[in-house]
Specification:
Layout (H helix, E strand, L loop, with lengths): L1 H30 L15 E4 L27 E4 L8 H49 L9 H24 L13 H26 L6 H28 L6 E7 L5 E6 L4 H15 L5 H16 L13 H14 L1 H34 L7 H6 L7 H22 L8 H13 L4 H9 L9 H4 L5 E4 L12 E5 L4 E8 L28
Parallel strand pairs: 1-2
Antiparallel strand pairs: 3-4, 3-7, 5-6, 6-7
Helix pairs in contact: 1-11, 2-4, 2-5, 3-5, 4-5, 9-11, 9-13, 11-12
Length: about 525
Amino acid sequence: MSAAMDTESTYSGYSHYSGHSKKAHRQGRDRHKSPRSKDGSRSEKSVTIQAPPAEPLLGNDASRVEEGQDDNWGETTTAITGTSEHSISQEDIARISKDLEDSVGLDCKRYLGLTVAAVLGLLVFLTPIAFILLPQILWRDDLEPCGTVCEGLFISVAFKLLILLIGTWALFFRQPKADIPRVFVFRALLLVLIFLFVFSYWLFYGVRILDLKDTNYQGIVQYAVSLVDALLFIHYLAIVLLELRQLQPMFTVKVVRSTDGESRYYSLGHLSIQRAALVVLENYYKDFTVYNPAVLTASKSRAAKHMAGLKVYNVDGPGNNASGQSRAMIAAAARRRDSSHNELYYEEADHERRVRKRRARLVVAVEEAFTHIKRLQAEEQQKAPGEMMDPREAAQAIFPSMARALQKYLRTTRQQQYHSMESILQHLSFCITNNMTPKAFLERYLNPGPTLQYDRDRWFSKQWTLISEEAVTSGLQDGIVFVLKCLDFSLVVNVKKIPFIKLSEEFIDPKSHKFVLRLQSETSV
């Protein structure tokens, strides 16, 4: 209870701190601001961490600051509030409506294909049973007695249908992972083959058995058994075409992200372009680091800063056009090329120094915070019941001591948009529950992880566009290039065929391993 009260008082102190001491902190910091600051407005910026239930970002877009700010920006007021503000523009409304329309069309296409497959599957399973029951219903008195042979065939049909039902459920009725732009060719061919096969059996059954009212009931039952056997063979063919054919690696694909050039290599079998695109996307979310546009804005702002420092004077009068100014700026930028690499070197060195410093501060703060947590044993829980806390309360109790160091490190490494306060508290509670070390807690923040590690709202792209010069239903070939494009970036996929390897054998006789020791006068042996 006391620990929980301390937690509440800590959070309440954070909430009211900005109202009473914000002005005093600003005045004190103006007197002692770092010489690295260039203007007074840059040192007066504050950061707001917004609490759940709205799950805002740890660094909101409205409070993002440029890279050139001083190292003491985090010493300003930090306020934790319980409310959040959201805004939406006309572009967002248009995009949401378009996504809704696309999702409705995709759902209709998905359910239409599933309905056709379900109806055809029901027809397949009811056909053998109908073949056996229709003679018993229509001309039961005229049928020849079958006896034990037919009973054995009934048992055979029942178990074969059960095996076929389980195999069909395992192969076809699975939760779809994605919506592809075109039909799956092999699956469509199998459905057409099954339909033609069942239609042929029904046609023969209607002409030779129903019209003539065949009295040989044993032959009718064997006819139904042959249908079930043929369906089992078709199911085996489906396993070969849909599952086994793609297992052997035949191609190597290189996937490059267009924005930062990060690349990976994967081995694929005989797949169509659209199915290869699905495999690439599945591996992208687990292998590629999360896309961070804030890292790319640094280089763009650096180039813009260099171009902004150039001044062009029109000495020929106002009649000269703008192309001359453009050429003059390009020529001046070329003359400054030799000195710009020095600026880039010192900027990167300064950034690495700040990252190492704030990383060290974060590690020390987290290690000190974890020292205040102790797991109680069963006998200790009975002695002090009033001081016990669950993992969530313990995480809330130690989080304020590490919040500022973690926030400053995430801002320096430009990761603040991927970690909300609620996600950090959940991860901290998870680490406390499983008795994990501070190093295990920091692993998520010190090393940028794969895309799936973060919340889906931060990275998930609902719509991907497949761009290919070849038909997306055609198979992979050597030299094919296709692009997977989303809103912010694209993945360029280059396909290369695995070369044919010729391996020869050379036999070495074990008795040929004989050696002679050569002694010379100047050796020590």
